[in-house]
């Protein structure tokens, strides 16, 4: 069989890099713009102020709960260690 009569090999077209077609757009630009618009909308609206107050309150409560868990955990650990030492001595 000569080279002229061989069937052509089917090849898939090369993929284009879609990112290179948009050099000005970076990852997260749209999300950041949406977040800023949402934040500015909340600051203009009284409901947004209440939301910010409740978020700060929730943050304070979260810190208080974590501090309480750490303190109680230390207290339990101290008592557990002293109980273990007392039982091991007998």
* SSE succession: HH
Mean pLDDT: 77
Could you name the ranges where pLDDT drops below 50 across 5 or more consecutive residues? Answer: none
Q: Percentage of helical residues?
A: 55-70%
Q: Give the terminus-to-terminus CA distance.
A: 97 Å
CA gyration radius, whole angstroms: 32 Å
The tally of beta strands, per DSSP, is 0
Shape: flat
- Largest sheet report: none
How many DSSP helices?
2
Class computed from helices, strands and strand pairing: mainly alpha
Strand content: under 5%
Describe this structure in words.
This protein has 90 residues and is an all-alpha fold. It has a domain at 46-90. Helix content is 67%, strand content 0%. α1 packs across α2 (46-89). The model has no long low-confidence stretch (mean pLDDT 77).
Quick description:
The chain has 90 residues and is mainly α.
What's the helix and strand layout?
Blueprint: H1 29-44, H2 46-89
Helix pairs in contact: 1-2
